[in-house]
Every structure is written in C-alpha cells, then in structure tokens.
Amino acid sequence: MKILVDAETKKILGASILGSEGDEIIHSILDIMYADVPYTVIQRAVHIHPTISELIPTALAELKPLAY
Predict the structure, then answer these.
(1) pLDDT of 37-65, one tens digit each?
(2) Residue 15 near residue 24 (C-beta atoms within 8 A)
(3) Is the separation of the CB atoms in 15 and 1 below 8 Å?
(4) Which of 13, 18, 20, 48 has the most CB atoms less than 10 A away?
(5) What is the C-alpha separation between 21 and 36, in angstroms, rounded?
(6) What is the dihedral of CA 15, 42, 55, 19, to 10 degrees?
(7) How far apart are CA 52 and CA 10, in angstroms?
C-alpha cells in the first residue's frame, strides 16, 4: 500500500493498493479524497476489526518525503 499526500495541504493525491481485499480499503481513501479533507481525518478514525482498513493509520504514520 502506497499513499501519496501533498506536504502543504495534507490532502491525499492518490493511492496504490496491491493485494487481496484492496477493494475494501480503496473506498475509504476515495471518500477522504472526495471530501477534500486532510489525511489526518482518516488516520485518526477508528476502523472496525478485522479489516484491511485497519492498516490506514499505520501507512499514514510512515509518510516520507519523495526523493527527486
């Protein structure tokens, strides 16, 4: 799972999900993108166990700047 976030606005620009159950997690990410809110909204959300969406806070906690 890779999530691309704008450093200034903190908005999700896109995501790449590879693996089973990816269809379940992409809808959560799309909702945040369409709502036009910062990634922190979904990072702080409580996701029901057991789902792949539980990985969203972990993935967003590990954001790193892109190297050019």
Answers:
(1) 999 999 988 777 777 888 888 889 999 99
(2) no
(3) yes
(4) 13
(5) 24
(6) -30
(7) 22
Rg (the chain; Cα; Å): 11
In the chain, the N- to C-terminal Cα span, in Å, equals: 20
Residue 66 has pLDDT above 80, yes or no: yes
pLDDT digits (tens, 9 = 90+) for 20-31: 888 888 888 999
Full DSSP string of 3-26: EEE-TTT-BEEEEE--STTHHHHH
Which residue shows structure tokens 């922190």?
Answer: 40
